[in-house]
Amino acid sequence: MGNAKNRNFPRALRLWRRARGKKISMDKPIQFFSTNLKSGNLRFHEALLKGQAPDKGLYLPVSIPQIPVEEIIDFGRKEYWEIAYHVTKRFLKGEISDDELITIARDSYNYEVPLEHVSDRKYVMRLDRGPTASFKDFAARMMGRLMQYYLQTGNRRLLILTATSGDTGSAVANAFYGLDNIDIVVLFPKDEVTDRQRKQMTTLGKNVNVLALDAKFDDCQALVKQAFADASLDHLGLSSANSINIGRLVPQIVYFFYAYAKLSSPGEQIIFSVPSGNFGDMMGGVLAMKMGLPVRRFIIATNQNDEFPNYLNSGKYNKIEPSRNCISSAMNVGHPSNLARLVALYGGIMDEKGAILRSADMERMRKELWGISITDAETRKTIDEAWKQWKLLLEPHGSVGWTGLMKYILEQGDNFKKDQLCVSLETAHPAKFPDEINKITGIDPELPQSLQGIDNKPEFFTDLPNNYTSFKSWLNTNFK
Ligand SMILES: *Cc1c(COP(=O)(O)O)cnc(C)c1O
Predict the structure, then answer these.
(1) Are residues 173 and 312 in the same domain?
(2) CA of 215 to the centre of ligand 1 (A)
(3) Residues 290-342: tens digit of each pLDDT
(4) What is the pLDDT of residues 390-414, one digit of tens each?
(5) Residue 97: inside a domain, yes or no?
(6) Could you give the CA distance from residue 340 to residue 283 in angstroms, rounded to a whole number?
């Protein structure tokens, strides 16, 4: 971790470089290790193109770069893409030129990131204004552009495999659509995505291939993981765009800095509520905190897949198989793939199956994180009440986050101060869940631009049986 000396050194270097009018990257690149500790360390671009580590662990930075609080406060005057540049370059030093990274950040974040005031100092951050109207656009757009950059430089091709519980597939497909060096295969559970979510993936075509499985999200993810571990598929150049990829994680750190910088008063701490499934979103937040963002607490709100709140309380981890079907469908995850990263950040080791090989510092975890599971009935009730009380329009995922915040405030009682700054994340656009929203509130959320016209476009997808043999033979037939 950074100390004062380390932190001042790069600044001096920057000033020196600026004075000489040259861009010389003298910073040593950050190394990334695998949470299973059995694969060697890699640099960012290598971890990005690999996805999962060969030992089935997930990559994390060996040392976490620090951002001084004065600089965080200064972000308040910057645009979103500029903050994205300043935060992500901490992980990409020596890996890409400043100009190149600025271009990528500007290009990735050409849409609004509204911070909607609700009451007192409580806000909802709307991460739903990207091209597929889900927060996954934040990660996918930057990751796609970074991958393209490194593939072009190395004259390489990749075949991206991704399992989706709804929104990853469309965000990734959209972010990679039409890129020269990349093909995409998306696997989705047939009955667990809405028509609109499906159409956002299946109406693209070109280099986007979509497979429909009569299965759960976890089954889709298991097939993808098995393909990655299968040496006989090495010739396909497989990589992942799921939240196991470090390239997804790094861009998700940015909006936590953004919200704090735009809303905070000097010296204060913030509370975030993060609706969580695979825990990529909340890992972005926890990394932001470890980089120096003044966070009082993260509320980790899950749906009825409550394995994490149970783990936080008991220190014992039991995944849920099969995962439970809830209306916040993108969070129907019985074993969050990023949990191994979280455990690692708190000094423990969790393998890819969810076994805890060394326990994490649970006491510290409980101080920094508060977990809560929200039922579908509560999710619906909050959508209704938030609309009636504040004209706050939530969809099921954002409602889980907001309900989590309300429960936290109740539990804290007098310890919760009215002027406490709180930001709850809204991760999808309400128009993606028109039936549910209409049933509860009686209103029809207006379609964002990106979803208009989609209902009438032709769809392309293949039905595939839920077994590895079929999947592998489909891959071998379609890609050589
Ligand atoms: C993916 C997703 C989530 C969960 O995010 P994780 O990073 O997997 O925890 C929440 N809401 C929506 C709309 C999503 O698409």
Answers:
(1) no
(2) 19
(3) 999 999 999 999 999 999 999 999 999 999 998 899 999 889 999 998 999 99
(4) 999 999 999 999 999 999 999 999 9
(5) no
(6) 10
> Ligand 1 pocket: which of 278, 374, 395 to mutate (most atoms <8 Å of CB)?
278
Tell me, in angstroms, the distance from the centre of ligand 1 to residue 137's CA. 11
Please, are residues 355 and 40 in contact by the beta-carbon 8 Å criterion? no
| Contact yes or no for 383/395 (Cβ under 8 A) | yes
- Report if residue 270 sits inside a domain: yes
Pocket test for ligand 1, best of 126, 252, 281 (most atoms within 8 A of CB): 281
Pair 279, 159 in one domain: no
Question: Number of structural domains, the chain?
Answer: 2
Say what the pTM is.
Answer: 0.89
Any ligand 1 atom below 6 A from CB of 354: no
Q: Domain holding 221: CATH number? A: 3.40.50.1100
265 shares its domain with 349: yes
Q: Report which ligand 1 atom has the smallest distance to the Cα of 333.
A: 8
**Is there an atom of ligand 1 within 6 Å of 433 CB?**
no
Structure tokens, 93: 């030093």
Contact 129, 446 (CB under 8 A): no
Whole-angstrom distance, CA of residue 365 vs CA of residue 417: 22
Q: Are residues 341 and 375 in the same domain?
A: yes
